[in-house]
Amino acid sequence: MSRPVKVAEADLSVDHVAISDDGKYGSAYILLKNNHQLLQMLKVPFYNGIIGKNELLRQGRGNIGYRLAVNDLKHFLAVPQAEETYNVPVSVVVCTRNRTDLLNACIDALRKLDFPNFEILIVDNAPDNDLTEKLALAKGVRYVRENLPGLDRARNKGIRESIHPIIAFTDDDARPDRNWLKAIARNFTDSKVMAVTGFVAPAELETHAQQLFEWSYGGMGHGFSRKVFDGCKMSDRSKLGASAMGVGANMAYRRSWFEQGGFFDPALDVGTPSCGGGDVEMFHRIVASKGTLVYDPNALVWHMHRQGMEALYKQVFNNGRSFVCYLLTCYRNGTTGLANLVGFFLYNWLYQWHLKNIIFGGGRVSRKLLLTELKGMLTGPAAYIRTRKFSK
User: Fold this and answer.
1) Could you tell me if 258 and 315 lie in one domain?
2) Average pLDDT value for residue range 309-325
């Protein structure tokens, strides 16, 4: 049984840093920042019950120094810093279904956002009760209901009901950082940017399943460097790797994109036979249309990973299934050709991610999770047929 690991954050621009053990943990997984800029995550053992700034700098060694000296400057030059860029109003959409306890904590985090003009819109997707509606009323946030099941249907309802030119999405099991919207809004000062995604960190690592997902499967983070995915400069095959561009728990779009590029595909994601893929398909659609998507790690969201092993294996199985549905949807929509699809599937996904790690991974990636994902992949074609019928 894995020992719980404390999740914490530390800003190295502050003189005094002290992360305490609380008598429960043997180590901490710490998100390091410098003036709100993300640097890296470090797993550091507790020796005397306290981890201080000197220990963090020692553990991080050259990596922290490099990011402080170089990446901080690059980020400052690459992203507009003017205060007026924060004044673009944002609609924050949270789609949920029968998870009031999780949603309650999400709303509390959203209400603490440091941003001048935003709304919170809760989309209740085919609920079994009125608990979410009552919670939204008690919290003073907007509430709408989408009676047809499916996460992408709920997202589309949120787009139609929201009022601002930028629409940000997060999940009920996510906890956005208070500077989340500031980081998102800065990137939209470039008129070419159609979407922004950001870093997703684990909110807790209390169980073996949570630790396995974060460290042996890859978690939801996509690194600590800002990345610009310009569809005009990408190869057709690389555009299929949209899962490397972000995740649905942390994404934002221009409203105008949906007017020109279309809404989320209702045949995809949770609540349909596909069990996922709606966010990735939208990322792909943007770059396939020669649009630009920006991944900015400073747009930070904390995520509650699944606590139990059964739930984790189900999630990974569904990832394999939804990936096939995603690829087939791209082919059906004409955003990729058959040769690119087959090449990406066989080399990038099957060989590079699965077979290479299963055969030569040496334990870095969990073989059991990879095999579970492959099993899910085998159910993808049949799920795709069912999910197309589902959307009609």
Assistant:
1) no
2) 97
CB 157 within 8 A of CB 143: no
Last residue of a domain, one of 245, 280, 310: 310
Sort 11 into a burial class: Cβ within 10 Å, 0-12 / 13-18 / 19+: middle
Q: Are residues 206 and 247 in the same domain?
A: yes
Burial 261-282 (b: 16+ CB within 10 A, else e): bebbbbbbbbbbbbbbbbbbbb
Name the domain boundary from 251, 282, 310.
310
Distance CA 326, CA 104 (A): 31
In a shared domain, residues 69 and 150: no
Task: Give the Å distances, CA to CA, from 27 to 30, 191, 352.
Answer: 10, 44, 32
pLDDT by residue (tens digit) across 120-170? 999 999 999 999 999 999 999 999 999 999 999 999 999 999 999 999 999
What count of other Cβ atoms lies within 10 Å of the Cβ of residue 172?
A: 22
Burial label for 305, CB within 10 Å (0-12, 13-18, 19+), is: buried
- What is the spatial distance between Cα 386 and Cα 383, in angstroms, rounded to a whole number? 5
Q: Are residues 287 and 231 in the same domain?
A: yes
CB-neighbour burial class of residue 47 (10 A; exposed 0-12, middle 13-18, buried 19+): exposed
CA 189 → CA 179, 183, 194, 258, distances in Å?
A: 17, 11, 11, 18
